[in-house]
Amino acid sequence: MRLLHTMLRVGDLQRSINFYTQAMGMQLLRITRRPEQNYDLAFVGYGNNPEHAEIELTYNYGVTAYELGTGFGHLAIGVPDVVATCEHIARAGGTITRAPGAVKGGATVIAFVQDPDGYKIELIERPAL
Questions:
Q1: What is the pTM of this model?
Q2: Is the C or the N end of the chain the one with fewer CB within 10 Å?
Q3: How many whole angstroms separate alpha carbon 5 and alpha carbon 58?
């Protein structure tokens, strides 16, 4: 397993892209637009090397600001088998908050679990891990 990305909700996607690329020296790695689901994503990081964790900037249409504390979204962990990982987490007493399945609007298999403090962790299937 490895850390894939951290998701942050942002009020202005371009402003955030500018900050992370210009002020922080990251690269804009990719943008995903999901107008049917009312959000856009921009992934920034220090390179396309799969070993580097990224930041996912999420813009939810119509939301221009978040209160401090609501901007954090989730951690993402790449796992070779989301179903097996969820079964293991459930056996260990963990909480599955979104059952394994394809992401809305795509084919990638994901699930969400919750840590003891309520923080969300997204499991993303990466069979090559």
A1: 0.78
A2: N
A3: 12
What is the spatial distance between Cα 89 and Cα 24, in angstroms, rounded to a whole number?
Answer: 35
Residues 58-70 pLDDT 10s: 999 999 998 878 8
Cα–Cα distance, 80 to 126 (Å, whole number) = 5
Torsional class of 38: left (φ above 0), alpha (ψ -120 to 50), beta (otherwise): left
CA atoms within 13 A on the CB side of 33: 1
Structure tokens at 112: 């969400």
What type of residue sits at position 113? V
Per-residue exposure over 102-111, b if at least 16 CB sit within 10 Å of its own CB, e if not: eeeeeeebbb
- All structural domains of the chain: 1-70 (3.10.180.10), 74-129 (3.10.180.10)
> What residues act catalytically?
122
